[in-house]
Design a protein that fits this description.
With 233 residues, the chain is α+β, with helices and mostly antiparallel strands. The chain is built from 4 helices and 12 strands.
Length: 233
């Protein structure tokens, strides 16, 4: 995908997001992880609706953290454009996701360009269904994400709705069914992200960060073993 030009007040590297209302995120299958259960750094290809490559994402952390902490591990996600320049940086600290620990819930911070915080996603305390708030660079809540009670991917998509502060649905993050073999033997996932075309590009990038957080919390297996369960216990 070529870079749109002449976009005022747009962080470098986010020009790609001004002309799209959908992103497709495909996780790369890691053969070592698939056959042994040994956790490796995740890698993702990010494309537009036409299948054109927009970004490439690579997780950055150490071997011990990945294999000891499993899906709860902290990580940095580095997003590169087609010129191999890092244009977005995301940081997920070590935290809990269970409703039993309301003071230490999940979050991820998004910077674009790296070092310039443009927003974050914070898990909200809930017992039944997952929910998140989307914050801008000032720390104000601008949107929310509401997930389903059951996040098992049983031969179908799992949808997390993006809603306005008034409760109106404005987009969604959808974990797409990727086939029986891939679902059972790997944790390589497909995601679709939809949002309004005129949404601030910073918030589009933050929704991409929300996708990586949701993937880590609900669809990342530990040693290729399914650990998800209904509710937020």
């Amino acid at each position: 995908m070529s870079i749109p030009s002449g976009i005022p007040n747009c962080p470098r590297g986010l020009e790609y997001l001004t002309t799209i209302d959908q992103l497709l995120v495909k996780q790369k299958v890691e053969l070592l992880e698939a056959f042994t259960g040994f956790e490796t750094n995740n890698k993702f290809s990010i494309k537009n609706a036409l299948g054109q490559k927009v970004y490439f994402a690579a997780e950055d952390n150490d071997c011990c953290t990945r294999n000891i902490c499993g899906p709860s591990r902290p990580f940095d996600m580095r997003i590169f454009d087609n010129f191999q320049q890092e244009v977005i940086h995301m940081h997920r600290p070590l935290a809990c996701s269970s409703c039993l620990f309301p003071c230490c819930l999940q979050s991820i911070e998004v910077s674009a360009p790296p070092g310039n915080v443009i927003g974050s996603i914070e898990q909200e305390w809930s017992i039944c269904s997952p929910s998140f708030r989307i914050l801008n660079h000032l720390g104000d809540t601008v949107m929310r994400i509401e997930g389903p009670f059951c996040t098992f991917s049983l031969c179908g998509d799992v949808e997390f709705n993006v809603v306005s502060l008034t409760g109106e649905k404005v987009g969604k993050i959808s974990k797409q069914w990727s086939g029986l073999a891939r679902e059972i033997f790997t944790d390589a996932d497909f995601f679709g992200i939809s949002f309004p075309m005129d949404l601030d590009v910073r918030m589009k990038a933050v929704l991409l960060g929300a996708t990586f957080l949701i993937d880590a919390m609900f669809f990342e297996k530990s040693g290729n073993r399914e650990t998800d369960r209904p509710g937020m216990l």
